[in-house]
Design goal:
The complex is a heterodimer of chains A (369) and B (307). Chain A has 14 helices and 4 strands. By secondary structure, chain A is mostly helical. Chain A has 2 domains: 239 residues, no CATH class; 101 residues, abc type-2 transporter like domain (abc type-2 transporter like fold), CATH 3.40.1710. Chain B is of the alpha/beta class and 307 residues long. Chain B folds into 2 domains: 215 residues, P-loop containing nucleotide triphosphate hydrolases (Rossmann fold, 3-Layer(aba) Sandwich); 80 residues, 2-Layer Sandwich (Alpha-Beta Plaits). In chain B, strand 12 and strand 13 form a beta hairpin. Chain B is globular and about 75 Å long. Chain B starts with a strand and ends with a helix. The relative contact order of chain B is 0.13. Classes of the chains: A mainly alpha (369), B alpha/beta (307). At the A-B interface, helix 1 and helix 8 of A face helix 2, strand 6 and helix 3 of B.
Chain lengths: 369, 307
């Protein structure tokens, strides 16, 4: 192993990245874009659900019930309709996602303890929102009905759920740490996946392998510049998350850097391995997306909660490195755990990276077919 | 292996599936020699190059370069040789000087040595004014010289050049060969491949290659002299009219016009009498004539046809 040769490759690779608009955009612009898209535009929180109301009872009780819904902040009344059938139009056209229908006998049944009923209809075409809306609605409904029935005057048990770690239940608090993992996967695997394939395509690989450079020198030299870009992105994303999106960073910055470095080592090795095997930039890029970006996005617990997945996908998620990384990031950001809490996960990731790095070294041959 | 041998192969063979690209090649190249491997595209020249510089595994046979076995001491061979692949191996998004420095570091050239050799290389390649230009923005001829400079930065003992003048204009080609002769004076061994037969004549020895086999290996003059094809050079007042008559006569292989002269290549065993008789019939007088050696190209084509 010769330092001079590693340095030569690091310098060459850095110059190439600095002069390539595509690499620069992928390395620095895309993380920024992802952060803004997910931080601002896409929110998994459900609020101000458009709601249509059909109040046939028209009593103080029914008005009080509707007020409960609006007061919660989750529902926004867009229209009061007089006929029950008119609800269909609003739901079909998408003008409303929730309908509340109150029958004429609502008050009378409520006061006579005959079981007051009313109907909530939720547009189920977006199942995620529907589930959340239904949850909110039934909570409000239960409270309201009990109140009218007089039960809530002296509740026997008052259940109040409290959410820890993310008390405001804000999805961005989950999203930003998860996003860091996705950005790493993209920058790490996608950018490096191009490096060896590009050398083959441009004919410079033939020249490289005719030199005395050793395979590990070549791989390390190629990984280091992207490792630095990756770390810059982590710190940048975390900074933006904390200062712009006000995501709490309860853990230490050092833990963040250490964990990110371990994950980066893995995805970079994956990218370079893909690049070695694919030998063409287009193929390498596609494989890298499938092997790193998609799992990081879909199976890491970033977008979709792992316990809600079908069993097969849950099992599959155990081999997705991003799963462990997202978990650790959430621990660091929201719980403030120290590294000792997830030492095992970190060790797993390190093992994954080492395996891929070793594989890359074995697979890169200094010969042509 | 003898001390004065720079390259030696013994039964060197490379097959790609059913195709044998290089077929049992036995070759010796002496130290300080300029050896030319000549043949059409697809003859196997690039494959031999790659086998010799240790970036391809032979199917069978052996090769030694700079006193070391390419089979068993591949990486040590790489330290002693310079190689310029057909595509020059330059990083087009790096500048001239960045390319040279990159290869200098890759070969472990010390900083002081690098300073000296960079100056020397930029000087002989006339690239000094273009140091800061991106390699991708150089002309074909300049790219070729930069490729050569990069291959020489660590002062190799043996230099391998794979079709270095491919796609380069004639002036740049002549400059390039001048540089090669200068390198030869420094005692470096040069192994060059080319599809241009006129270039092959500039080599100390040539190997004519066709379909993976070496047809012959010798000095260009002796290869030309070895042929049994008679060739005659004739002067006329109207060479064009004469060529009309001579072309197509029995026993005439080819006719080429060079100003007021004709180069007439004849079949093996044919005599010039038939040509004289035909010219006389048409009333065309011959101002003079002499025997000539056919060109390498003529010899090569006749050898290929004989197979």
């Amino acid at each position: 192993m010769r330092f001079q040769r590693i340095k030569a490759i690091v310098r060459k690779e850095s110059i190439q990245v600095a002069r390539d608009p595509f690499s620069l955009a992928m390395g620095f612009l895309m993380p920024l874009m992802l952060l803004f898209i997910f931080g601002y535009a896409i929110s998994l929180d459900v609020d101000e659900l458009t709601t249509v109301v059909n109040d046939l009872d028209k009593t103080s009780a029914s008005r009080e019930l509707v007020k409960q819904f609006t007061a919660s902040g989750y529902f926004k009344i867009v229209k009061q309709v007089d006929r029950y059938q008119d609800i269909d139009y609003y739901l079909d056209s998408g003008r409303a996602r929730v309908a509340i229908a109150i029958p004429v006998d609502f008050l009378s049944k409520a006061v006579t303890h005959k079981g007051a009923r009313f109907q909530i209809i939720v547009d189920g075409s977006d199942s995620n929102t529907a589930t959340i809306a239904l949850g909110y609605a039934s909570g409000i409904a239960e409270q309201a009905i009990r109140r009218f029935a007089g039960v809530s005057v002296a509740p026997v048990i008052d259940v109040r759920a409290r959410v820890w770690y993310n008390p405001e239940l804000k999805s961005k608090n989950f999203i930003i740490p998860g996003l860091v993992a996705v950005i790493m996967a993209v920058v790490g695997a996608l950018l490096t996946s191009l490096t060896i394939a590009r050398e083959w395509e441009r004919g410079t690989m033939e020249q490289l392998i005719s030199s005395p450079v050793k395979v590990p020198e070549l791989i390390i030299g190629k990984l280091l510049p992207y490792f630095v870009i990756g770390l810059i992105d982590v710190l940048f994303s975390a900074g933006l998350g904390v200062f712009l999106f006000e995501v709490p960073l309860k853990g230490s910055l050092i833990a963040l850097v250490v964990v990110s470095s371990i994950f980066l080592f893995g995805v970079l090795s994956l990218g370079i391995l893909v690049s070695i095997l694919a030998k063409s930039q287009v193929l390498a890029c596609q494989v890298a997306i499938i092997a790193s970006y998609l799992p990081a996005f879909l199976l890491s617990g970033f977008m979709f909660a792992i316990p809600n997945m079908p069993k097969a996908l849950q099992i599959l998620s155990y081999v997705v490195p991003a799963r462990y990384f997202v978990g650790m990031l959430k621990d660091i950001f929201l719980k403030g755990n120290s590294i000792s809490f997830f030492l095992f996960d970190a060790a797993l990731l390190l093992g994954f990276g080492t395996l891929l790095f070793a594989l890359a070294n074995v697979k890169l041959k200094k010969v042509m077919e | 292996m003898d001390d004065d041998i720079a390259i030696k192969t013994s039964g060197l063979t490379k097959s790609f599936g059913a195709v044998t690209a290089v077929d049992h090649i036995d070759l010796d190249v002496k130290k300080g020699e300029l050896f030319g491997l000549v043949g059409p595209d697809g003859a196997g020249k690039t494959t031999i190059m790659r086998l010799l510089v240790g970036i391809m595994e032979p199917t069978s046979g052996e090769a030694w370069v700079a006193g070391l076995s390419v089979m068993t001491e591949r990486e040590r061979v790489k330290e002693r040789i310079g190689y310029m692949s057909q595509r020059f191996g330059l990083y087009e998004d790096l500048t001239v000087i960045e390319n040279i420095h990159f290869y200098a570091d890759l070969y472990g050239v010390s900083r002081r040595e690098r300073l000296q050799s960079t100056e020397r290389l930029l000087g002989f390649s006339n690239l000094t004014p273009f140091q800061k230009r991106l390699a991708g923005q150089l002309s074909g001829g300049m790219k070729q010289k930069l490729g050569l400079a990069c291959a020489l930065v660590h002062r190799p003992e043996v230099l391998f050049l794979d079709e270095p003048t491919n796609g380069v204009d004639p002036v740049a080609r002549r400059d390039f060969w001048k540089i090669l002769y200068e390198l030869l004076r420094d005692g470096i061994t040069i192994f060059v491949s080319t599809a241009y037969l006129d270039e092959a004549e500039r080599c100390g020895r040539v190997g004519l290659m066709y379909q993976g086999r070496l047809l012959t290996v010798d000095e260009p003059g002796r290869v030309r002299a070895s042929t049994k094809l008679p060739m005659v050079e004739m002067w006329f007042s109207d060479a064009r009219a004469a060529s009309e008559v001579v072309r197509g006569l029995p026993g005439v292989r080819s006719v080429a016009i060079h100003g007021d002269r004709l180069h007439v290549l004849m079949q093996e065993g044919s005599t010039i009498d038939g040509i004289h008789a035909a010219l006389k019939r048409e009333g065309i007088g011959v101002k003079g004539e002499r025997e000539r050696l056919p060109s390498l190209e003529d010899v090569f084509i006749s050898m290929v046809e004989a197979r």
